[in-house]
Amino acid sequence: MTIRISKTQVSFRSPFHLDSIDGEWPAGTYTIEAQDESMSNSSFQAFRRICTTMIARTRNGRLGLPRFVEIVPSELAAALATDRDGLDRAENEGLAAH
Questions:
Q1: pLDDT at 60 over 70
Q2: What is the C-alpha separation between 1 and 38, in angstroms, rounded?
Q3: Which of 26, 41, 78, 83 is most exposed, with minimal Cβ within 10 Å?
Q4: How far is Cα 59 from Cα 85, in angstroms, rounded to an integer?
Q5: Cβ distance 51 to 70 under 8 Å?
């Protein structure tokens, strides 16, 4: 089996929480690593996700050794949407105050 690894970065403007990991994580930029496994089929190439990992520094934001935390992709998407919605709401409230 072939394993494909992709990395992306996500940014949070506010502290966030994921149900699959304990505690609140600080605002900042996090690297997300996805591992996909090839599925055997001679007619087309397909992959299935086998692991999604958030690579984080220490929780207090200081530099240190990276910490690899397995996460659920749908929880990450929901947390990013909540973060984005909170920013949009704050910007709209700011505009309404003027």
A1: no
A2: 6
A3: 41
A4: 23
A5: yes
The string of DSSP codes covering the chain is --EEEEEEEEEESS-EE-TTSSSEE-SEEEEEEEEEEEE--SSS-EEEEEEEEEEE--TTS-----EEEE--HHHHHHHHHHHHHHHHHHHHHHHHH-
Give pairs for 69-73: CB < 8 Å, separation 24+: 69/21, 70/20, 71/18, 71/20, 71/21, 71/32, 72/18, 72/19, 72/20, 73/34, 73/49
* Range(s) of the domain holding residue 39: 3-97
How far apart are alpha carbons 70 and 34 in whole angstroms? 10
d(CA 78, CA 83): 9
Residue with tokens 């998407």: 77
Q: Each residue of 61-90: pLDDT tens digit?
A: 566 788 899 999 999 999 999 999 976 665
Please tell me the total count of domains within the chain. Answer: 1
